[in-house]
Specification:
The protein has 218 residues and is of the alpha/beta class. The protein folds into two domains: 83 residues, Orthogonal Bundle (Arc Repressor Mutant, subunit A), CATH 1.10.10.10; 112 residues, 3-Layer(aba) Sandwich (Rossmann fold). The chain has eight helices and nine strands. It has a seven-stranded mixed β-sheet, with helices on both faces. A two-stranded antiparallel ribbon has the order 1-2. It starts with 13 loop residues before the first helix and ends with a helix.
Length: 218
């Protein structure tokens, strides 16, 4: 993924690069709703990020908004797409064909964001050989070699926590430059590899807390 970024992407700090996809998804939703402009305050409030950090992140990309108007969503989206390399389809592999893994592997909406799942892996003999969409599940033992053969730079991890680090190491050995981790565990990665963690349980906990807060307010 890193090698496919534009020149600006090569100079942007990694923490900013990790937040840009979150901005991108939010902006995409606003665009679908017909909104033309967005302020840094709107982005900050929705994503739970400090407004000053949002402004700093976007300024680091070289894009600026208009006073009292904000950012033109279509232009900002195009700018982020260029930096993250989303204009060209990116290929990824997914490891762990449980319920979540199967759902992600069969999700058609990824193509809208330039992502194509090209291979899937699991260690369960009952799952190896199954076809999900147009992908045949392969055994995880050949993961590193297969990733290297495909030249894939993104690995998606949906295995149990106890297996995640081993899978992560195999992906890195195969040459991935980014990991999208759905396992509820902290992974150790080389400095050059980007990671995006998705802790669904933590998100649910925060959502439950917000619901309870609303109930108590009433």
């Amino acid at each position: 993924m890193i090698s496919d970024m534009g020149q600006a992407g090569n100079t942007i700090p990694k923490p900013t690069l990790r937040r840009l996809p979150r901005y991108y998804f939010f902006l995409k939703n606003l665009q679908k709703q017909g909104q033309v402009y967005v302020s840094s305050n709107e982005i900050a409030d929705e994503l739970g990020v400090e407004n000053t950090l949002v402004r700093k992140d976007l300024s680091l990309t070289g894009f600026s908004g208009k006073p009292k108007v904000g950012y033109t969503i279509s232009l900002l989206l195009a700018h982020i797409e260029d930096i993250l390399g989303l204009k060209n389809t990116k290929q990824a592999v997914i490891v762990g064909m449980g319920n979540l893994g199967r759902a992600l592997a069969g999700y058609p909406g990824f193509r809208e964001f330039g992502l194509e799942i090209v291979a899937a892996f699991d260690r369960d003999p009952k799952k190896v050989g199954n076809v999900i969409g147009n992908i045949t599940v392969e055994h995880v033992e050949g993961l590193s070699e297969r990733v290297q053969e495909l030249g894939v730079h993104l690995g998606i991890i949906t295995v149990p926590a106890g297996e995640a680090q081993k899978v992560c190491d195999m992906l890195v050995e195969g040459g991935v430059m980014a990991v999208w981790n759905f396992a509820p565990v902290h992974l150790r990665l080389p400095e050059h590899v980007i990671i995006q963690n998705e802790n669904l349980a933590a998100r649910l906990s925060r959502l439950s807390h917000q619901i309870m807060s609303l109930v108590y307010e009433k």
